[in-house]
Write a structure and sequence with these properties.
39% of the residues lie in helices and 28% in strands. The protein is of the alpha+beta class.
Length: 138
């Protein structure tokens, strides 16, 4: 089943994973603590579907989906649906286990002001890997 995003459709499993980010991140005290100095707007693009995350003091306080004309973001992570699906497996295969491995392979682009991303790299890696817990549980 696919879900309309305004820019096309997004497979239901991927929509569920991105929608789970606020609960997974905010429910992990160590991850929130690790990101306590992070205040940023970022764009995570899955295929052509845009997802804007607002992070304040390590917590995901907002998740907006779909095209937002003139919506700003500090940096963006863009990959196709197949790449995100492979990244979010419980035990990802080689080249899909890490954001930089995906970028090196040409599956992920990292754009914008990379200073907050690089300064808090482990936080963002763990934030985006959080949906792997769903694969383990479901």
């Amino acid at each position: 089943m696919a879900e309309a995003t305004g820019q096309g459709t997004l497979a239901a499993d991927l929509a569920a994973r991105i929608d789970s980010l606020p609960a997974l991140v905010n429910g992990d005290p160590w991850l929130v603590h690790r990101g306590r100095f992070v205040d940023v707007e970022l764009l995570v693009e899955i295929g052509g579907a845009a997802h804007y995350l607002t992070i304040e003091h390590g917590s995901v306080v907002a998740l907006a989906r779909g095209p937002r004309p003139l919506r700003s973001w500090r940096f963006a992570l863009r990959a196709g649906e197949a790449a995100w699906r492979r990244f979010w497996q419980e035990m990802p295969e080689p080249h899909y286990h890490d954001l930089f491995a995906m970028a090196k392979r040409g599956e992920l682009s990292i754009e914008g002001d990379l200073q907050p991303f690089m300064a808090n790299l482990l936080y963002f890696k763990d934030l985006l890997a959080a949906p792997r817990r769903q694969a383990r549980e479901g």
